[in-house]
Amino acid sequence: MDSNSAEQKDMASKAHADVHADEKAAANGKTAKLRIFRGDSGGGELVDYELPLVEGMVVLDAVLYVQAHQAGDLAVRWNCKAAHCGSCSAEINGKPRLLCKTRIEEFDGGEIQVHPLKAFPVIKDLVSDISWNYQVSKGIKPFTSDEQAPFTMYEEDVERLYEPKKCIECFMCQDVCHVLRTHHKHAEFAGPRFFVRNQWLEMHPMDNQDRLHDLKEDNGLGLCNITKCCTEVCPVDIHITDNSIIPLKERVADEYYDPAKWLMRKIRGNRGSRNGAAARNGSRNGN
Amino acid sequence: MSSIAAAWKRLPWWVEPMAVVFALTAFGIYSLTIVVFYPGVFQEYVSPFYSPEVGRPDWLPWFITAPVLILWIPLGFRATCYYYRKAYYRAFFWDPPACQAKAQQLDRPWARSTESYKGERALFVLNNIHRYFLYATIMVVAFLWYEAFLTVFTPDGFQITVASLLWFLNIVLVSAYTFSCHSFRHLVGGNKDCYSCIRGGNVRRKTYNFVSRLNTRHPQWAWYSLVSLLATDIYLRLMQAGVITDFPIIGG
């Protein structure tokens, strides 16, 4: 975490300095070649751009250079330029990446193609309409506790909650997930980002809600076939599949696919009681 | 190691799924052939494919040999394992074969429509019984440990040979694979929200954290243990055929 943020800080400051070093680059004589998608929901094409290469330049620098000097109408969404806001996600050479965290030098002078996120409708150029994600988010039961915050919690009970909290909502995991991207299951599948959110809520010791039914029926957890593309693209290194999706799948299995557990519940008779799962999982205020 | 991993990443996307298809098919053919047609015991050594040794009723068809009566347990464990699921959904079902945009366009090229995708909701919902295969596999692992010890404490006394080292290496790797399982991780602590609220919570938490550390290498343990199973069995077959003589290190 520390080295990561240090690296990001370093990257940001260096790139910032280099943007103002155009003259140096011009003297250098090196250029970067980019192919950027230009178009909208009706279609579009890749357009070639060439610009002076500055040492340490990231793809976002290049895109902004093109916007400032060659194509004033180029649309790109960006904000912090430090890999913290998750705004500049796009597809670079077919892989979802943050524009601000991808250095031009990484491609060794090879082709750099920049596309918008394809799992969502394109608005213009590199900007996709990601509002579907906010609708899904609204459908998730919010954090609810019987107690008033601030809570007294022990470190050992919340150490698993730091990782899902790192999420910057760049939605690159949503973009790369074949359930959304290829199979278009937007109506019945929440996507990796919202399994991460659900895992945080489900494992929170102070939360008293049971989301397993929603996860199985409304959020389509069973549609995920754990092929881990989401984990591969996460820019903040959340192990989405191993630490969010699979633990949730195991909890859903506890509730719906485990015959021995089903029998035990029948014998004990606590099936269907309010917050049953939360109580069994040892939530502080689950009973 | 990291340079190998970096080189592996630079390869075209189809190399990994094809390599998985080749490795798993080859392993499947090899193990099926030996357990149906060949014996697996030589002196004090029992091949891990034949452990534990069980009796076989005579009325069974010829291809149901004694090891087959046991092998469905580890086979089922691996077939429903979260890592192998990823591996075969990608490699055998191309669903998707890899994560790049180009590869994703080839997702299940034989499917009538992209919308027909069911994930783990149709037939593969059965993968949810993974935990039961885990319980059964733990028993098989216990026998493998027992047999590893038998290679050291022989009727003729204590010995350590190259073979016994191989048997121990194998069971260590098989155990690492078994106990780094996601279902085991859930069982020991993943199913709890609050460790300080339950009896034995601290032990549960420490065990969970240990299993979590093992779990980050679950795919590696899966492959290493597959290779060690193969190596152990091949070593036994070479001793059987008289090609090699076991090399004693202590005793023997």
How would you characterize the overall build of this protein?
- The complex is a heterodimer of chains A (287) and B (252).
- Chain A is an alpha+beta fold and 287 residues long.
- Chain A has two domains: 2-128, Beta-grasp domain (Ubiquitin-like (UB roll)), CATH 3.10.20; 131-280, Alpha-helical ferredoxin (Fumarate Reductase Iron-sulfur Protein, Chain B, domain 2, Orthogonal Bundle), CATH 1.10.1060.10.
- Chain A contains 14 helices and seven strands.
- Chain A has helices at residues 2-19, 22-28, 59-69, 131-138, 155-158, 162-165, 172-176, 178-181, 192-203, 212-217, 229-233, 240-256, 259-268, 276-280, and strands spanning 31-40, 43-52, 89-92, 95-98, 112-115, 122-124, 127-128.
- In chain A, a hairpin with a 2-residue loop joins strand 1 and strand 2 (43-52).
- In chain A, helix 9 (192-203) packs across helix 12 (240-256).
- Chain A is elongated and about 75 Å long.
- Chain B has 252 residues and is mainly α.
- Chain B has one domain (11-180, 217-251).
- Chain B has a three-stranded antiparallel β-sheet with strand order 3-4-5. A two-stranded antiparallel sheet of chain B has the order 1-2.
- In chain B, helix 8 (182-190) packs antiparallel against helix 9 (201-215).
